[in-house]
Design a protein that fits this description.
Strand order of the largest sheet: 1-11-10-9-8-7-4-3-2
Helix content: under 10%
Radius of gyration: 44 Å
Amino acid sequence: MLINELLSSLESYEIAFPARVDHNGTLLAFSSAPPRQRRGASGRGAEEEARLFYRVAAPSTHFLLNLTRSPRLLAGQVSVEYWTRAGLAWQRVTRPHCLYAGHLQGQPRSSHVAISTCGGLHGLIVAGEEEYLIEPLQGGPKGARGPKESGPHVVYKRSSLRYPHLDTACGPTLEITHHAGKSLDSFCKWQKAIVSHGNAIPENGVANHDTAVLITRYDICIYKNKPCGTLGLAPVGGMCERERSCSVNEDIGLATAFTIAHEIGHTFGMSHDGVGNSCGARGQDPAKLMAAHITMKTNPFVWSSCSSDYISSYLDSGLGVCLNNRPPRQDFVYPTVAPGQAYDADEQCRFQHGVKSRQCKYGEVCSELWCLSKSNRCITNSIPAAEGTLCQTHTIDKGWCYKRVCVPFGSRPEGVDGAWGPWTPWGDCSRTCGGGVSSSSRHCDSPRPTIGGKYCPGERRRHRSCNTDDCPPGSQDFREMQCSEFDSIPFRGKFYTWKTYRGGGVKACSLTCLAEGFNFYTERAAAVVDGTPCRPDTVDICVSGECKHVGCDRVLGSDLREDKCRVCGGDGSACETTDGVFTSALPGTGYEEVVWIPKGSVHIFIQDLNLSLSHLALKGDQESLLLEGLPGTPQPHRLPLAGTTFQLRQGPDHSQSLEALGPLNSSLVVMVTARGRGSQVQVVECRSQLHSSTVAPHYCSAHSKLPKRERACNTEPCPPDWVVGNWSRCSRSCEAGVRSRSVVCQRRVSAVEEKALDDSACPQPRPPVLEACRGPACPPEWAALDWSECTPSCGPGLRHRVVLCKSADHRATLPAAHCSPAAKPPATMRCNLRRCPPARWVAGEWGECSAQCGAGQQQRSVRCTGHAGQPSRECAEALRPPATQHCEARCDSAPPGDGPEECKDVNKVAYCPLVFKFQFCSRAYFRQMCCKTCQGR
């Protein structure tokens, strides 16, 4: 941030001149060299620079910083980038020798300091509940001497920022709040914008990423701008979609790693364990990292088999293609100390719950870390302590945590690398003809990788071609067949006839179908059946949602290609190339033959080089004409003829061409005619000279027959006129709707060609494009009211809504039997607002003392209750309050009786000292027999 922008964004700030001092705050001798370059006469310079003391004095603040060099304060690959509206302005990498951490002198537990000393002091000072930031002012007073850290610095409180909610923003378009949904939407758009920016650094900048991860200290909530139990949010299956490959994660300390991995799992298409899969159910694979909620029984260190299936399916379908590029190699230096050794259980609690938190020693710390909350209650997020955290069990005096288990300190079970099992037999062919696919798979389970062992390298699934013979003539197109299977499945409550969508802009191996008679198409399946051609006129096929190369021998992965003669694996010697240009004068009327194309010809290409004057046609054996320039047809336009398909294309210069792969199953003749002319033919008849009537031709001499004459006519342009198409289907299958038709202003250029014009060129009023239509009465349909609030208020719950059977106009409520049971929307929905507070022990009031005199006992009720007061069995037994306690009842000075009586021990009784010792004086009999002893005489 430029200094002027910084100062204008602050409510208040102070200017300070930091000074190097010793541990007592005494100013050191002035030196113009930066600290890292000074060397003492005794040779202890490097040792001295490992510890630094600075005095930062301002009018209302005075800090004495006690700093220790901490080169690992930031990760080694961290860089800072400054972006303006024009793009990336500069980038600065981390310099570890400048990083220092520490505290305020005399306040080691209540303060924290993190500072970089390169180019002045930049960093954070936490004192009590307040956060201060310090950074140098660029360009101090003229003539100022000394190193940059002794120049003017601005010191301000974080609370002094005028726009605190934008303090965590990287530009005006990024806004992070408690609302997880809105924050995610803002972050996803922002990260897409920077990755597509022209100034993004391609090698190692923040804008070079496959997925973007935001870590925030906001207590986020999925549906409101207030704190709640949400830990993260990510779009499902968005990994390779630029605007959806992103996630928002709440910072909860070291366990944030679990949240990040969980949300990245969602971007790979993973659902929660137990949601739409069997993981977590009784007798099935337990819920693990992708569990919807972490509990004491959840193992967040590993993925479940369901998660493995989800990501395998995602990658097999080709959705992870953006991950195929090989990134530049970077050698990362990872910590050699376990995280639980670097940050003990108390520090992990402070990461989660603030600086005053510490560990509550309840239960097994390796499976569930309990911490003291701000309200001085012991709480848990059900998150295990970090690996390396000290632990103890009844069999292990000193241990450390390793993947939720307490093991002897320093030990770490060795990982086992995985190995492939045998290939399964080849499966059934996906098609009965036309080229299908058979598959075989193997699993990395001989053995499975465990405890960080390597996964098996290589292919998990293999494919081979099968049933490659052509389908019988007249067989339905395989993709058309798949679309038609959805004709009997309602789409948004209606039935449609589905045809293959042949347009662009869709994935080659997704099943995209067009609703016949309606102006829309949609993806009916993410992937077509294996063996479906990727595109028309290609032998490449779809396998697991990806387009795979097929050789001309129809074998998957084959390198065989057709030569120019369309001979598979040929050398091009089986045919010869014939080409030429028609330069003769155009015929005055009718068509003229240009060239004869024989049966069996391949790679046919015809181009009209004289667009303004000529017009092409193809003549087949059945005298049928295939005319170029069909009005209103999309480009390219496919025209079947002579056993092949001709592609009619129009280039950017309006040039037109016909192209086909062949081979032709019959010969064709290319013909040409002049544009923009009609013709008149003078008919020659045989007539009687007697009464001029027409008679049979054999009455006239064949030698005297006049030649037939033809001449051009109506050579001037035809007037423009409206050309209307057929009406479409009604927009609604019942009751009132709308139907449409195409209405185009056109001018006839020739007998076979029309030219579209602007609507203003037609003098007559434009015919209507839309008109009302009506079908039979609409059947009743289900109507759902709004969802209720989630109940209970925490933990797994349900939302409810009322679903009614309504008349088509929604005015009348009908009995449920009038509506289709299969189409009824759900009336309940699972929901989960936040994690419920843990169960706790509730103790009642103490009862009366059991003794009327002397020592006795008191009792009270102790029960385990859930958050709503319901009985529970989830309370930790170690935290159970006592249900009994000792009590002392006041004794009278003399036993009750009719009058004064001497208090003494009965002579025959010798056990009175034992009665007193074992606290039996509370009983009336012993009080009477040992009166003197019980009263302590």
